[in-house]
Amino acid sequence: MKSYLLHLGRLLLSSVILFLVVITVLFFLLELAPGDPVQSLVGDVPISPEFRAQITAAYGLDLPAWQRYFAYIANVLTGNLGYSFGTNNEPVLDLILSRAGNTLALAVPAFILSTVGGIILGSIAARTRRRWLDAGISGVAVGLFSVPSFWFGMLLIMVFSLTLGWFPTQGKAPYGESGIALPYLVLPVITMATSELAYKTRIMRSSMIESLGQDFIDTARSKGLNPRRVLWGHALPNALLPMVTVAGYSLGFIFAGSTLVESVFGWPGMGLLFVDAINSQNNMVVLGVAIVLTVTIIIVNFLTDIVYGLVDPRLRARFTRKAGAPA
Questions:
Q1: CA-CA 20 to 30 A from 70: which of 184, 198, 255, 327?
Q2: Which of 314, 198, 188, 203 is nearest to 258 (CA)?
Q3: Block means of pLDDT (10 residues each) for the chain, length 327 residues?
């Protein structure tokens, strides 16, 4: 238990260091970015030097960068992500939370679809005796993984929205209605899940082939067990161990990739908020969204490491080995 707690402590410390590094890099990259945030705030209208000085002082832009950096770090650690320049001084955290539900509405179904689909297709590709089926699944997986998500999303819009007219192209519900309508959800979820589905299929295929070659599988077959029971009851649990790590990390990639998908489909989530903030040079919102996504990914990866340590007997044995026992 002591070794496992030390392991968790190292994971937590590395996560905190990574979090601080991300904030630091993003803050100073935005400082070096070209453009005038004051002009972006007021729009394409001329302003007097007095008004510019007033706005600059109000948002603390007249302070040196290092002072604003340490002030921002202190605010972030207390949960204050600042205020948005262009939305009537709305708190950045409130603005992000108002969009977080829409992003989760895409990310969660995409994660489930890609994980379950990847396990099933990868297992079929590894077990099938039809070489053409294995080659077809593997080839399609490689092809879909190589396709950029924004291009695939636009292709789906051209085929299923503009040509067939089955699904809408933009937004999350008909004009004037609140909530999320199912037809608006289909294409963005498919787009977000496709590349992860292809990647998980390849990983699962390799893991299943390795699992099917183990001695305990030969023992199960020698007992006369049904091939399906051997595959799903004996080989699958062992082959799922690598998928625990892959699935955890893929959730972070899904959140990070939501920016492009939401931009293509006009989905009002955190990704679209991030793009709009970049275009308007609303640095506080850019930093806020990046921080929320970073924290989410770090938490998911931290929990993934914990779960993997619990389900993998090799890691459990390493942490529970008695003192003086051979490694």
A1: 255
A2: 188
A3: 71 83 82 67 69 72 78 81 71 85 88 89 78 80 82 89 86 77 87 87 85 77 76 76 79 79 86 83 82 84 73 58 49
Q: Estimate the crossing angle of helix 92-127 against helix 283-311, to 10 degrees.
A: 40
Give the residue ranges of DSSP H helices in the chain. Answer: 2-32, 37-42, 49-58, 65-77, 92-127, 131-146, 149-156, 182-212, 215-222, 227-229, 236-265, 270-279, 283-311, 313-320
Is the pTM above the cut of 0.90?
Answer: no
CA dihedral of 43, 44, 48, 50, whole degrees rounded to 10:
20
Torsion sign (Cα): 183, 188, 189, 190: positive
For residue 127, how many C-alpha atoms fall within 13 Å in the half-sphere facing its CB?
Answer: 21
DSSP three-state, residue 91: strand
Give the C-alpha separation, 81 to 48, whole Å. 29
**Residue 26 to residue 291: CA distance in whole angstroms:** 9
Task: Answer yes or no: are the C-beta atoms of 99 and 184 closer than 8 Å.
Answer: no
